[in-house]
Amino acid sequence: MKIDILTLFPEMFDGVFSHSIIKRAKEKGLAGIRLFNIRDWCTGKHKTVDDYAFGGGAGMVMMIEPISRCIEELSKKTKYDQVIYLTPDGELLDQKMANKLSLSENLLILCGHYKGIDERIREHFITLEISIGDYVLSGGELAAAVLTDTLVRLLPGVLNDETSALSDSFQDNLLSPPVYTRPYEFRGWKVPDILLSGNDREIAKWKHDQSLDRTRQRRPGLLEK
Ligand code: 6GU
Known about the structure:
- The chain is an alpha/beta fold.
- It has helices at residues 14-17, 20-27, 64-77, 95-101, 119-124, 141-152, 200-218, 220-223; strands at 2-7, 32-37, 50-52, 60-62, 82-92, 106-111, 128-131, 185-186, 189-190.
- The protein has two domains: 2-152, SPOUT methyltransferase, trefoil knot domain (Alpha/beta knot, 3-Layer(aba) Sandwich); 169-224, tRNA(m1g37)methyltransferase, domain 2 (Trp Operon Repressor, Chain A).
- The two termini are 29 Å apart.
- Residues 86-88, 131-133, 135-137, 139-140, 143 line the site of 6-chloroguanine.
């Protein structure tokens, strides 16, 4: 999968994409992530990216020209499955959407800033608008990092059997069961004995029951899905 990210702050992704799973996916050639600075498509001495909103109102709005030039130039070389805009008023990201999107060959992700982007960009260039939750971030970059991580870990070959995405919370609309490691006892707090019983069937049943209990208690809405 190739993911192209358009942003005014490419440096924000440096740390996130150079560690752990995303790093491994890039090294194995399973994911290709490219960052493009929208400012490189700006013209004029000041390389202006934003301007006052028509009709007034607080905050600057990202202008259509640099973004349209950038999207059109990249689209000539790459056929994107989706051109995604990250915005709090987009469709809520969940595991089901992530699973579907993870089948894409090429994605373009636009990160907006300030008070938003000129609506005509959304109307004419964007094919999918995504929010990562009901709260407001200062820009789309953190959301783009979240989306990228969620997608990359689903690509075949990125995770090994032990970390398999199939056992993630949400894959079956259930939260994951609790996990334990050594020591067996810490300050008198013991690991549930069933996990040391060696009885695989009983252990699997215990895990499933724990998942169900946890989901009922914490996220009952998931069970109705
Ligand atoms: Cl995608 N962007 C911003 N700026 N805030 C958000 C969001 C996205 N999703 C939730 N809050």
